[in-house]
Amino acid sequence: MVTSRRAGPEEEEQAGTENKLRPHVEHPLPTRFSPAPRWCMRTSSVRAGGACAVARGLPVCRGGGRARAEGEFKETGARATAMPGSLEVPSLEELDVQEVSVSTSVLKAAAHHYGSQCDKPNKEFMLCRWEEKDPRKCLKEGKQVNQCALEFFRKIKAHCAEPFTEYWTCIDYTNLQELRRCRKQQLAFDNCVLENLGWVRPDLGELSKVTKVQTDRPIPENVYHSRPRPEPNPPIEGDLKPAKYGSRLFFWNW
């Protein structure tokens, strides 16, 4: 059991006398001229006379010291000057195309006829993306897809604007944008494009069939982007003899 006693009057008076004689020292607040620690990266510059010390895996720059770790700044300079390989990016003029500014309901209402009319440029673009694995090499095919979509909606606007507007408006106002709730408007739109443009609505599953794309684009050298096979192991020279003390699979043998 720990007991404590209260200090007597003589002890309190003696302690007060010592506190009065002891000089009062206040810790100065950090000012703009005080050497405060600064966190820095390895590739950042350090002023002359400073030193970097690693604390918990991160370098700390302190401006007051003059010690400098040998080899630390040499490695820093090598890392700072290392530049990655240059990558050619197309200019904004090459990427600038007119966007198809329509909503989801419009795209959903025109999906079947759009897939039928723009089937070839769409599959040409997807084949290019799969073979090249580089979108920069398929800008031409992507522009053809965009141009086909613009011409498709321009034809609908010129010949069947009213029935198409009723169709996509019905889809937009129904719950979950279900096509089965707008079969009446769909029939009017299909009849309009059949009479004016000669488009036949594709059957269910027709656009999802596996087809072959006939293209004039040359085949890439490595279509599957597979790595080259490693070279076979060189033949072992000389005769291999068994181990002197048997198998080394188990170190402890008891």
Automatic annotation (TrEMBL):
One of its GO terms (cellular component) is mitochondrial intermembrane space. It is found in: Mitochondrion intermembrane space. One of its GO terms (biological process) is mitochondrial electron transport, NADH to ubiquinone. The keyword Lipoprotein does not apply. Residues 160-194 form the CHCH domain. Its main location: mitochondrion. The keyword Translocase does not apply. Keywords: Disulfide bond, Electron transport, Mitochondrion, Repeat, Respiratory chain, Transport. Residues 1-30 are annotated as: Disordered. Signal peptide: none annotated. Residues 19-29 have a biased composition (Basic and acidic residues). Accessory subunit of the mitochondrial membrane respiratory chain NADH dehydrogenase (Complex I), that is believed not to be involved in catalysis. Complex I functions in the transfer of electrons from NADH to the respiratory chain. The immediate electron acceptor for the enzyme is believed to be ubiquinone. Belongs to the complex I NDUFA8 subunit family. This is NADH dehydrogenase [ubiquinone] 1 alpha subcomplex subunit 8.
